[in-house]
Design goal:
The longest helix is centred in the middle third of the chain and has 58 residues. Helix 11 packs parallel to helix 15 and helix 13 runs antiparallel to helix 15. Strands 3-2-1-6-5-4 form a 6-stranded antiparallel β-sheet, with helices on both faces. Strands 14-13-12-17-16-15 form a 6-stranded antiparallel β-sheet, sandwiched between helices. It has a 5-stranded antiparallel β-sheet with strand order 8-7-11-10-9, sandwiched between helices. It has 5 domains: 121 residues, PAS domain (Beta-Lactamase); 97 residues, Beta-Lactamase, CATH 3.30.450; 108 residues, PAS domain (Beta-Lactamase); 73 residues, Signal transduction histidine kinase, dimerisation/phosphotransfer (DHp) domain (Helix Hairpins, Orthogonal Bundle); 147 residues, Histidine kinase-like ATPase, C-terminal domain (Heat Shock Protein 90, 2-Layer Sandwich). The termini are far apart. The chain is built from 15 helices and 25 strands. A hairpin with an 8-residue loop joins strand 13 and strand 14. With 621 residues, it is α+β, with helices and mostly antiparallel strands.
């Protein structure tokens, strides 16, 4: 460990020690420009840090390390002398989480005005930032609630000085006071009488409805509420006045009778249900309609049995909240039983508040309408739109697959053609007999590959277009599997390390195109021989009384999980160096789709694969 001892560092230690005494929880780190080494301040001594600058930089959040390094490089280059920013950084390399640090970077210059060292002061501000964030959230919530109260709100102190007001209060004061609200002494304001001032002085809450003159010939009905504000210990903090313009409610009350008459005319003409709900008594009055007769003062719970069980909570929540919600119109949608229908009907209930003579909530009155037909029309429209979108998506997918298929065909055909053309030109000018024979074999193999590819494409095209005829007939599975086994046994490679096993199940018959089923299993067997060099290949079938499962299993190279997902796709080959068109398994899958059967594969890398098909079958009588 290197310890720096000289006059310059002694002065440095003295200054930084004083800084540490003044600022709590600050770590100091030094970077000496001449030797490019980091130093820590420990016990009033500068000691070489046990980490490099790069290791220090790696402790920063990836998004912040470049920002810090840029600031540090700017100071080293002389472009700037000071940087003060907040970064995300781990305290220790083994830490899982980043913390917030306020880091000051200050350069120090020698007598020649050259940078000799850079000092970093590092302060962990994670807890401070968290506290500030919580306080900011709380203040924002309070300010949001206060600013968005649906009525004018004013806070003032004992002297009458307005301390705070929301936008509604500021807007109202221009008409009421004729001047800016914050220049008004509220205790002496227009409309404040001696009785109100007495309540203020004694901190007694009150509610009062007043009629105020606004401008020259306009009057407004206002409900005033006074609330003294105290802290948790009961210490008085200030006064709060709430002003709610209830002019519209008064007008609503005055037009109640006319509204009732009009409502009755509407319900009789259109066959709607007119009802009144009284939230404080939780009772219902119904004028009749649908399955409801004329009833008065019925507890709301009496109609719960008519509500759809899944929608009952909607009504229950509304019933619990109606007495406390702001007085405004509401609309509720739910399902309920009607006497003239066997099933639940979709209904919409529109409600508006009605007030009593004291401008207080009396009840909610409204109309209930059966909208089942309208809902069904909307659902049918949405279903039609979904079908249309599905058809569009299917057409776009078909177009994409066609383009992809053509691109793959072009690539797959061009590869053997290039080989055939290239070696055909070489064989003409080649005199060496062995090379001519080699070129001939290459041309012959690529010709076979090309013929197999073209045949596969034509076969796949016929299957997908529906132009292939299937000659379905009933045949014995046991005989079919044995014939297939012996036909392959004589073609099986002479390899003492590879066995060909036959495993027969319960006798059964199926109705299918025997040639197509043979084509699928032949493809499975051919692939198994191609990818298996030792162990065994097993041809097996089993019958569970309903379906027969025919499978080919091997102990070959196996298929990865990613390969299994793509193995039945076009031009997918398990080994790019082995011969084949990559269409065989795709054709097999299309054949099984036409035969209404299932096809699948299970495999483990290095252990082998099992390809299987399943078809409906019945036991041999």
């Amino acid at each position: 460990m290197i310890i720096i001892e000289n006059t310059m560092t002694d002065l440095l230690l003295k200054e930084t020690t004083q800084l540490l005494n003044e600022v709590a929880d600050v770590d100091l780190l030094y970077y000496f420009h001449k030797d490019n080494i980091l130093y820590n301040l420990e016990n009033k001594k500068l000691k070489e840090a046990d980490y490099t600058y790069q290791e220090f930089l790696d402790s920063f959040h990836p998004s912040d390390s470049l920002l810090f390094d840029s600031s540090f490089s700017s100071i080293l280059s002389g472009a700037s002398n000071y940087s003060n920013k907040v970064y995300r950084k781990k305290q220790h390399a083994h830490d899982e989480h980043y913390q917030l640090y306020n880091i000051n970077i200050i350069s120090h210059r020698d007598n020649n005005d050259e940078i000799d060292f850079v000092m970093f002061s590092i302060k962990n501000i994670t807890d401070i930032a968290s506290t500030h964030r919580k306080q900011s959230i709380m203040l924002d919530k309070y300010q949001t609630i206060f600013s968005n109260l649906p009525f004018a709100t004013i806070c003032f102190d004992d002297s009458g000085r307005v301390l705070q007001a929301n936008s509604n209060a500021v807007s109202m004061s221009k008409n009421w006071f004729g001047t800016e609200l914050f220049s008004v002494n509220f205790l002496n304001a227009k409309g404040v009488d001696d009785d109100m001032r007495k309540h203020f002085s004694e901190h007694i809450p009150f509610t009062r409805d007043v009629r105020c003159k606004i401008n020259y010939d306009e009057y407004r009905d206002v409900r005033t509420n006074y609330v003294p504000i105290s802290d948790d210990d009961g210490n008085f903090l200030g006064h709060m006045m709430l002003f709610d313009d209830i002019t519209s409610e008064k007008q609503l009350l005055r037009s109640n009778d006319m509204f009732t008459k009009k409502m009755k005319m509407v319900t009789e003409h259109f066959g709607l249900i007119h009802l009144d709900y009284f939230p404080y008594t939780r009772t219902l009055n119904v004028d009749g309609g649908y399955s409801l007769a004329h009833i008065d003062n019925v507890p709301i719970e009496h109609i719960y049995d008519m509500i759809h069980p899944e929608d009952l909570s909607i009504i229950e929540d509304a019933v619990e909240n109606f007495a406390y919600l702001p007085m405004k119109p509401y609309e509720i949608n739910f399902r309920m039983l009607m006497s003239n229908h066997d099933d639940y009907r979709n209904v919409t209930l529109s409600l508006i508040p009605r007030l009593d003579n004291n401008i207080r909530l009396k009840c909610y009155t409204g109309l209930m309408e059966d909208i089942t037909d309208r809902v069904r029309q909307l659902e049918e429209k949405e279903l039609t739109l979904r079908k249309l979108q599905h058809a569009i998506d299917k057409a776009e997918e078909s177009d994409r697959l066609k383009s992809s298929f053509l691109a793959n065909i072009s690539h797959e055909i061009r590869t053997p053609l290039n080989a055939i053309v290239g070696f055909s030109e070489l064989i003409v000018s080649e005199e060496d007999t062995e090379k001519r024979e080699e070129f001939s074999n290459i041309i012959r193999n690529n010709t076979a590959t090309l013929l197999e590819l073209v045949g596969g494409i034509l076969d796949l095209s016929k299957l997908e277009s529906g132009n292939t005829e299937f000659d379905n007939e009933e045949f014995d599975v046991d005989n079919f599997i044995q014939d297939l086994y012996y036909s392959f046994k004589y073609r099986f490679p002479e390899n003492n390390e590879l066995d060909f096993i036959l495993d027969l199940g319960a006798p059964c018959t199926i109705v299918a195109d025997v040639d197509r089923v043979r084509e699928v299993l032949t493809n499975f067997l051919t692939n198994a021989i191609k990818y298996t060099s030792k162990g065994n290949i097993k041809l097996k079938y089993s019958f569970d009384g309903t379906n027969v499962r025919m499978e080919v299993s091997d102990t070959g190279i196996g298929i990865s999980p990613e390969g299994i997902e793509k193995v039945f796709n076009r031009f997918e080959k398990l080994g790019c160096l082995l011969p084949g068109s990559g269409l065989g398994l795709t054709i097999c899958k299309n054949i099984m789709n036409i035969l209404k059967g299932d096809i699948g594969v299970t495999s483990t890398i290095g252990e082998g694969s099992t390809f299987w098909i399943s078809l409906p079958a019945k036991p041999v009588c």
